[in-house]
Amino acid sequence: MSKLLLLDIDGTLMNSKKEIPESAKAALIQAKENGHDLAIATGRAPFMINKVLKETGIRTYITFNGQYIVHEDECIHREALDTDLLSSIVEFAEKRAHPIVFMNEKKMVSSIDYHPDIDESIKTLKFPHPEMVEDFHKDHDIYQALVFCEEDEEQQYHDTFKEMQFVRWHRVSCDILPKGGTKASGIEHLIRATGHTLEDTIAFGDGLNDLQMMEKAGISVAMANGHEETKKRATHVTDHVDEDGLANAFKHLKLI
C-alpha cells in the first residue's frame, strides 16, 4: 500500500555536513518507484529548501512547521502570523535586547543590522546574516519568526504570549509559531490533498519540532542523532544520519 513519507531536513535528510547522503538519495528514488509519495516537512522557509527539492525531485512540502504547504508545486494552505500579536512580541523582545528575524515564502529579514546570535544560528543553515528592513512584519505576511535568546530567557515568552508557541531549534534561537501551527497540523492539510489517511503516513525526524508530527503520523522514525525526547516517543529509532540512517529506516520498514 502506498505510504506518504514525511521527511524532516536537518539531521534527517541532510547529514552533519548539510549534504544529502548518496544512500538517502538512492532510497528516495527507490521508494518513489515503489509507489510511495514523498514530502518534505520542515521548519525552514520555502526559499531555503530549493536545493533539497532540486536534488530529490520532491514537489510537495510542509514548511514553516505547517504555516505554508505546497502539494505538487501548488500552494494549498498558508497562514500568516497575526500582525498585531507579532508587533507586541517585537516590542517585548526589543526591551530585552533580543533581536527578531521575520520570514515569508521568499526571504528573511532582521530587526537589527547585525547580531552575533543571528549570525551563529543562521550560519548553521548555510545562510548569511539577513539584511535589516524596518517594520517588515507590518507590510508583509510573515509565516514564521525567530526570537534570539538563550534557554534561561525563554520562559518569559511562554508566560507572556500564551497564544503562541516558542520552539527552540538552536542554542540561541526559538521559532515563533501560533498555537496549533505545527508540522502535525500540516499533515492534516496534506492528506486531504493526497488522498492518504493518517495511518498511511510515516514521519522521519530528529528534533523537538518534529514531535507532534511524529505523534500524529501512523508510524514515526527518529534518527539516532536526534533529541532524546524524540527518540523516546518514536515507533522506531534508526541509525545516525551520517551512517545511512534514513536508507536503513526505509529498508527496515520495507519501503524499499
UniProtKB/TrEMBL annotation:
Keywords linked to the UniProt accession: Isomerase
GO cellular component, one term: cytosol
Residues spanning the membrane: none
KW Isomerase (keyword) present: yes
Protein's UniProt keywords contain Nucleotide-binding: no
SUPFAM superfamilies (alphabetical): HAD-like
GO MF: isomerase activity; magnesium ion binding; phosphatase activity
Signal peptide: none
InterPro entries in UniProt: Cof (IPR000150), HAD-like_sf (IPR036412), HAD-SF_hydro_IIB (IPR006379), HAD_sf (IPR023214)
Name by which UniProt lists this protein: Putative bifunctional phosphatase/peptidyl-prolyl cis-trans isomerase
Species the sequence originates in: Planococcus massiliensis
